[in-house]
Design brief:
By secondary structure, the protein is α/β, with parallel strands linked by helices. The protein has one domain: Arginase, Chain A, CATH 3.40.800.20. The protein has eight helices and six strands. A six-stranded parallel sheet has the order 1-6-5-2-3-4, with helices on both faces. Strand 5, helix 6 (about 200-215) and strand 6 (about 220) form a beta-alpha-beta unit. Helix 1 (about 5-15) runs antiparallel to helix 2 (about 30-50) and helix 5 runs parallel beside helix 6 (about 200-215). Mean pLDDT is about 95; it is low at about 1-15.
């Protein structure tokens, strides 16, 4: 994908350098890093607007914690917000869906008072970064009822996730009638993530991508969190295959990095035997 960067994203980059924290240190090449991340997501929105692509992917994007004047949670610039602003030039309503284990607070905050963007986040809640995303946070003013939060507990597995994700998203799409969708695919909701506590397999994570794509709406797919690198690579390779309609071979080809994927050396990220603290009663109540 050709990379571009608007003046707006440049301004955001400059502002952030003055307001970074322990989890967002200044480093050499920060400006270029922000420009490439944001520019790629903006370019994806631009290609969708111009009818050049039905689906665009930027796995380096999805930095959903950054605010207008604050870097947060390893996110220096909120490429998602900038891409949605681009999409709003040609689309009246944009739906944002977030399956990262962390709440998409930066995106929600940016569009909390408008009905032109509906945000839906499925995330771990309760003494967990960033501490936002209560089910009662629903938007304000014209944006009231256009922010949807589904707070979850640790151990979320494929079956439980699918049982809430599909009916909620189906109802949202039917009710809101979006003209375009932005999907943030944070891989820290996978089993075995170093900073996560969910128990999704790559198949369960990927089923969310497949379900969202089934609505046949213009779609921008972005990355996000993920801290067990071999699993991030597996999941996003698998989900790229889903988006382009190609079934990926399970056996990984020989290469310089094959040793990182042992002992199985395949594409799958399996679930573990982690206990699921999300009871059926709890999920039904939230739903």
């Amino acid at each position: 994908m050709q990379v571009s960067c608007s003046r707006t994203s440049m301004w955001f980059c400059i502002r952030y350098v003055d307001n970074v924290g322990d989890d967002c240190p200044v480093f050499d090449g920060l400006f270029e890093y922000c420009a490439l991340n944001a520019g790629s997501s903006i370019e994806g929105g631009l290609r969708i607007n111009q009818g050049l692509s039905d689906v665009c992917i930027n796995w380096s994007g999805g930095l959903h914690h950054a605010k207008k004047a604050e870097a947060s949670g390893f996110c220096y610039i909120n490429d998602i917000v900038l891409a949605i602003i681009e999409l709003l030039r040609y689309h009246q309503r944009v739906l944002y869906i977030d399956i990262d284990i962390h709440h998409g607070d930066g995106v929600e905050e940016a569009f909390y008072t408008t009905d032109r963007v509906m945000t839906v986040s499925f995330h771990k809640y309760g003494e967990y970064f960033p501490g936002t995303g209560d089910v009662r946070d629903i938007g304000y003013g014209r944006g009231k009822y256009y922010s949807v939060n589904f707070p979850l507990r640790e151990g979320m597995d494929d079956f439980s996730y699918q049982s809430i994700f599909e009916p909620v998203i189906r109802h949202v799409v039917e009710w809101y009638q979006p003209e375009a969708i932005v999907l943030q695919c944070g891989a820290d909701s996978l089993a075995g993530d170093r900073l996560g506590c969910f128990n999704l397999s790559s198949a369960g994570h990927g089923s969310c991508v497949s379900f969202v794509q089934s609505f046949n709406l213009p779609l921008l797919v972005l990355g996000g969190g993920g801290y067990t690198i071999r699993n991030v690579a597996r999941a996003w390779a698998y989900e790229t295959g889903i988006v382009v309609g190609k079934e990926m071979a399970q056996e990984l080809p020989a290469g310089d990095y094959l040793e990182y994927y042992g002992p199985a050396y395949n594409l799958s990220v399996p679930a573990s035997n982690m206990a699921n603290a999300n009871s059926r009663e709890y999920l039904d109540k939230m739903k």
